[in-house]
Write a structure and sequence with these properties.
The chain is of the alpha/beta class. The protein folds into two domains: 288 residues, LarA, N-terminal domain (Rossmann fold, 3-Layer(aba) Sandwich), CATH 3.40.50; 86 residues, Alpha-Beta Plaits, CATH 3.30.70.3270. It is 27% helix and 23% strand. The chain is built from twelve helices and 15 strands. Strands 1, 2, 3, 4, 7, 8, 9, 10 and 11 form a nine-stranded mixed β-sheet that branches. Strands 5-6 form a two-stranded antiparallel sheet. The chain has a two-stranded antiparallel ribbon with strand order 12-15. Helix 2 runs parallel beside helix 4 and helix 7 crosses helix 9. The chain is globular, with a radius of gyration of 20 Å. The model has no long low-confidence stretch (mean pLDDT 93). Bound molecules: iron/sulfur cluster (2 copies).
């Protein structure tokens, strides 16, 4: 597969159009990816309703700039995503999210369409190594091609979300928790993502890393200026570079580790050809990774000799447990819908309704944290956890 990744600096979304044209020109121009008369799905990351400055979703300036390039080729761009696990894939939900994320304006100013087809189809994928049957939203299947417009964010479950993970948005909203329930550990989940990437087969991936998200992303982290657009035809190559930029150890990135086991390339920086910049000039050494890395793939490799044998004994204490803040919870119910284990219910305390987590049922997938737009899901760290992460 193509191992080239292209990088272009962009310090302000006001320069998006100019910088993205530069990026795509370096890759051979939009004509290399889109043909006249085609319908092109712009698969943005629209996790939840959040203003562009929250860095939760692909910035509207990016989506509209790419849409204009697609239109110049005589093709029809349509903005498409099925938002996060706690949302039904309905017209009402889409309207709210398009408005909050700036997609309605992006569509107006660029002439792109907004998808309101909320149907999906079951697709069989015999080539899948782990999953051979997916539910995929119809607008992706009906399009002639997909452009993957992902966002660089830290991720409490998969360590980071980038080009490969963005494909999960082609699964209809409430079907997503089912995948978390079936694939509880990050390795199996990453394998599913690799199969999904194969079925969607996006023609081009562009990563919005102008304003990325660090900390406990992909929803409740903090915006972080990285000032960059990355482009690649191979989503895996793009994620290798993105991981290197944010200082995510390769062995803690389940997507790269599982891809390597499958013999896919590239999964290491020395297998990538980076064009447009030197990697040393792109690194963000102080980028905050999610606290949950303490329990994920490859964590053992980072323990000292005396910590490693103790890990199985204290496994539970080394995981971050989600807890609901009664004060902040608005009882919106988004986390209930997202929870794959039905571990969340509603309870009442002093006349106020709030969500409540049953720790015994919880598998630490953090979908509730991802879905809560009120910061009411807190990831609790034990004393031992803090000690191990000094
Ligand atoms: S915890 Fe958050 S997502 Fe869950 S009900 Fe409360 S406000 Fe809604
Ligand atoms: S309560 Fe546990 S299992 Fe349910 S969504 Fe939250 S982290 Fe996942």
């Amino acid at each position: 597969m193509d191992n080239r990744v292209y990088a272009v600096r962009c310090s302000d979304y006001g320069q998006s159009e100019e910088r993205l044209v530069e990026l795509v020109e370096m890759m051979g121009g939009m004509g290399a990816f889109v043909r006249e008369g085609e319908t092109i799905a712009l698969k943005a990351n629209l996790l939840r309703a959040g203003a562009p400055e929250e860095a939760v979703s692909t910035h509207p300036a990016v989506v509209s700039a790419v849409a204009r390039m697609v239109k110049k080729q005589g093709a029809e761009p349509v903005i498409v995503d099925s938002p996060g696990a706690g949302f039904r894939f309905t017209r009402k939900v889409l309207t709210r999210i398009y408005q909050a994320c700036g997609m309605s304006e992006a569509a107006d100013e660029s002439g792109a369409g907004l998808n309101f087809d909320t149907t999906f189809e079951v697709v069989f994928f015999p080539e899948g190594k782990l999953i051979k049957r997916f539910e995929i939203i119809t607008p992706i299947l009906k399009s002639d091609g997909v452009l993957n417009l992902c966002k660089l964010k830290s991720h409490t479950f998969t360590a980071m979300t980038g080009a490969v993970k963005n494909h999960f948005g082609v699964i209809p909203g409430l079907a997503k928790p089912g995948y978390h329930a079936k694939l509880m550990d990050t390795s199996r989940f990453a394998n599913m993502l690799l199969d999904l990437m194969g079925i969607v087969s996006s023609r081009l991936s562009i990563m919005d890393a102008v304003l990325a998200m660090e900390g406990d992303g992909p929803s409740g982290g903090d915006p972080r200026e990285v000032g960059l657009f990355l482009g690649a035809t191979n989503p895996l190559a793009l994620d290798v570079v993105a991981g290197e930029i944010i200082g995510l150890p390769r062995e803690m990135n389940p997507v790269l580790m599982e891809a390597e086991k499958r013999g896919m390339t590239p999964t290491r920086m020395n297998q990538v050809e980076l064009l447009g910049s030197d990697i040393s000039g792109l690194r963000c050494p102080d980028f905050r990774l999610p606290g949950t890395l303490c329990q994920g793939t490859g964590f053992s490799d980072h323990l000292t000799w005396w910590q490693r044998p103790l890990q199985p004994l204290f496994k539970d204490s080394l995981t971050q447990k989600p807890r609901i803040s009664r004060k902040k919870c608005t009882a919106c119910g988004a986390c209930l819908q997202a929870c794959p284990m039905k571990a969340i219910s509603m309870a009442k305390y002093r006349g106020k309704t709030h969500a409540l987590i049953d720790e015994e049922k919880c598998i630490r997938c953090y979908c509730c944290h991802e879905m809560c737009s009120d910061d009411a899901v807190i990831l609790r760290r034990s004393l031992l956890y803090r000690f191990a992460n000094r």
